[in-house]
Amino acid sequence: MKTPSRLAAGALGLTAAIALGSTSAEAYGPAANSLGCRLYFSDAGTGTSPTTWNDTFGLTQTPATPSPGQTVTVTFTAVAGPNNGPVPLNAGDVPVIIKLALGGSQSGTVTLNMATYPTAAAAAGAPLGSITATGTYVAGTAGAASLTVTQAVFNNATAKTYCSGPGDRDHKAAPAASTIVENYSVFGGGTSITSVTGQTVTSAARAGNTINFAVTGLNASATLSASLKNAGGGGTAEGSGAGTTDATGAGTGTLVVPAGATTGARTLSVSDGTNTVTTPITILGAPAISITPGGGGAGTAVAVSGTNWNPGSTVSIRGYKAGAPPPPPTADAAVTATASATGAISGSFTVNDPTTAYIGATSGAGPSTLFAVATWTASADSCVAKTGLATTGSCNLSYNLSQTVTAGNLAMSRTTGSGNVTLSGVTLNGTVQHGTGALAPITVTDYRGSTFGWSLVGAVTDFTGTPGGSIAKANLTWTPTCVAAAGSTNAVTATAGSAGAVDGSTLCSAPANAAGTGGGFDAGAALDLQIPANQLAGSYTATLTITLS
Question: In the Cβ-directed half-sphere of 499, how many Cα atoms lie within 13 Å?
Fold first, then answer.
């Protein structure tokens, strides 16, 4: 072996080697050992004395039990790594190459690499640090196989350092098997989904569906367990399926998708207690739709898309009125869409019915019916008369008109200055006599715009004389009149009151009417005061009050 003083600049001087002991059935290590091989320095290296790289080595692969044709990732690790020689190194000066031999049911070589080594600059004689080198191979036919480390190369550009078999003077020709060996099996078993209840495909299922599966290549006469796991075949198991195999390792089983199962890309995982086989499946969630636009007027074409529908199923799309789901449908004709292999739908639906509150999609019948809606906002401000190049069609915009009618008053009035009524005078002659006069017209106007009636009622006081005497109010009578006021438009006919005593009697009234009341009316009366034969002479006055209500 070359002495350190003769190493080329940047060459690696290793003070450790490789020779490992027994391995597990699945993977080697990590285990403290040495790699029994010679370490030669530079391409012209000589010498017969082996050096020993003492370290803790590991060799693993993922998956640990591959299937035929599956790509396998292999990882070699050394916890400490070798020490540097007398020349300082920069980071990445000596990339690591690990060679492995495939054995058993496999043949060939596998190359692992660690592109950047050491990961940081190292002084002369300093530890170079841990090694992790990875590579891949493709698993072959089913059977027992092995991976064996045969050579380690520290690939310094100036002077490579090889760790290989004793007496290998060119450091390349005869890499020797070490005791770092991973024994494994290429497993040829598999599973497939034969049918899914409630589905027309075998690639998807939803809660409550039963997945029927078949297996091959598993242990003979075994009891199978099945569950749903994540897309990589790991994670928390969901569901509890079962099945059995026959004497050849083939069998069948079922799994009911549990309520609340994780949706999306999943795997069906089936185990015989020793081996596990998986196959992908999609677990569907609650169906849903979305619409564009979310509202519009009559004739609007709406793009409808949806997810999580049963693949291959026919989905009906139509409009729905407001109400509890499923609400009543509108008059617009439904359209159909076929769900894709992933459960997606797309279609176009035209809204014409102004009562549309939702656009919905439905599929299936009975308890297995799937239903989803999206809110639609109807607009009265737009519509589509003709679509594209259509030559027929029409649409309407309607307007809501409003008018406020404010109620007027129920009122009465009289001619200015007509509030004093002078009855005709009499001269006493020993007989009953009458003073007469007239009540000036009172105009009643009813502008309330109602269905109510009204009335004019009189009230009078006793006549009081000066210097003395009185005449009873009962002696005053009237003969009412009531007619339509000139130029008025009346909804009803007002009626004059009965002739007789004034006090407490009606002068004029208009009836209530369900069709409406109102108008203008003139009311008046002829007055007559009966004066007793022996009435005290004097001047008499009284107050007549007319009340409108």
Answer: 4
